[in-house]
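Researcher: Going back to the complex we discussed earlier. I've cleaned up the inputs and rechecked each line, so this should be the final set. Can you rerun the prediction on the complete assembly and write out the structure?
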Amino acid sequence: MHSETSRSRVPAFCCNSVGTEFPENCSEIKTVKKWLLVQPKSSTSMMVDSGSVSMPLNLIMVATLAGRLFDVTLVDERIGDRIPEDFSEYDVVAITSRTLNAEIAYRIGDRALAQKKIVLLGGVHPTMMHDEAAQHCTSVVYGEVESIWDELEADMVNDQVKSLYRAKELRSMISMRSPDFSYALKSKNAGKYSSRIPILATKGCPVGCNFCTTPTVYGKSYRYREIGLVLDEIRYHQERLGRKRVNLSFMDDNISFRPQYFTELLEAMEKMKVRWNANISMNFLHKPEIARIAARSGCDLMSIGFESLNPDVLRTVNKGANRLKNYSTVVGNLHKNNVAIQGYFMFGFDDDSEKSFQATYDFIMENRIEFPVFSLVTPFPGTPYYEEMKPRLRHFEWEKYDTYHYMFEPRKISGEKLLENFVKLQKEVYRAKAVMHRMRGKPLNWVWMANFMMNRFTGGLKPEVYL
Ligand code: B12
Ligand code: SF4
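Model: Rerun complete. Updated structure for the full complex:
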């Protein structure tokens, strides 16, 4: 099914494979345009960019495409790469940004514009706020680069860049080629990246939660790659690292949305002997066979957005996949198969009350959730939820959109009580005795380490840090 060439390395791209017309000698162009791809860090004081971060799959994808014709250098400020003050070496400065680092990204963009460079801004924030982002760059790239690349590449070659690149339709993912990780691995700081290798099998999520950016960026679409290509990419990493047991982290929005594709993927992965984790929605995790096959295929951790234990909250955010009656079954199925759970819980919704905190504490402790993660609900710009909440928002500085800031006063609990309970819950769940209760008998791995770090971190937490 797969050629030996594609098995042994990342398939090389060739100029001829793109749909646009280029001068015959691509290598000439390559010496003309130099691109600097920039992954800025975030200024938030919370644990967002701390610990080891994963390789930036977004910019690796941009580099893989741009590297066909242009000279590409990738710098990642999160691992200590320096972003130059002077961009004279480069023609194009292309920056990725989420909301929490948008202001930093904009400052880099302004600096590069002042030096007369072509500046591209891409990523979720410039997509959702493209008019705002346009003030800080030459072109905004809306959504995924793959779907608009041919046009962008041709315009770059002809020096006729437009102010906005937005694909009319999303490209099929079936034959999406493998990203070329060498762009990220070239950095002398690459050793600081997490050992979990980012990988993608699907994109999009039709669930449509109103606080999430995915429905706006990808609509109701759900696309997936040919399973053989996912396996090829896994083999590439195995060969690169010289061992079968590699750790993968799926970056998919919702990898299990199509049960048939998901189970076929897992069955195929069973022979690969890898370890993996993924974000997953609860839509069919209550079926015991799914947990069994996930474990057999090497899953050691599932990240599940439980979001809330309050049924009124679940209703208002449109999280139809989350049925409270299934919560314990889902956890039980995974635990029976030794799959650990990273559980996401959000607070600060209008329907939240002090009861929400108690219910969450009870659920976590009774079900021995290994790695609970708590955040404050954050209406991200561009989402329907943001428009609804705008008149009540307390902050418009994007660096505060890190899900660790108190954004608005909920209707059923005061802001003060919200933060008091939010801190108390974290301290209680991560106090030594509670950690022992949740983690007893579980394998001694990084999840223990994460609990240890959270125990230290939450020990000093105060409500004021969330203001
Ligand atoms: C996997 C994931 C994570 C993982 C890994 C993150 C990582 N290392 O990148 C983990 C769990 C660590 C994580 C953490 C967080 N995440 Co997260 N995460 C995601 C998720 C599901 C997928 C991201 C991904 O890698 N996709 C695959 C890559 C290939 O696609 P991409 O990033 O969209 O990039 C493409 C395009 O955007 C474009 N592009 C991107 N940059 C550029 C730049 C240029 C120049 C060009 C031309 C194109 C371009 O082309 C790329 C290739 O197709 C997204 C949802 C989403 N679909 O974006 C949320 C998402 C990014 N996360 C979000 C949040 C809030 C967080 C946290 C704050 C949560 C928390 N409380 O800790 C932290 C912040 C981490 C940080 N420092 O940024 C929000 C961000 C919202 C916003 N407006 O900023 C999102 C959008 C989910 C949501 N709620 O809507 N996350
Ligand atoms: S299930 Fe997750 S990815 Fe899908 S819309 Fe809701 S929050 Fe976004």
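Model: Worth noting: The first strand starts at residue 34 and ends at 39.
Researcher: Good, that matches what I expected from the previous run.
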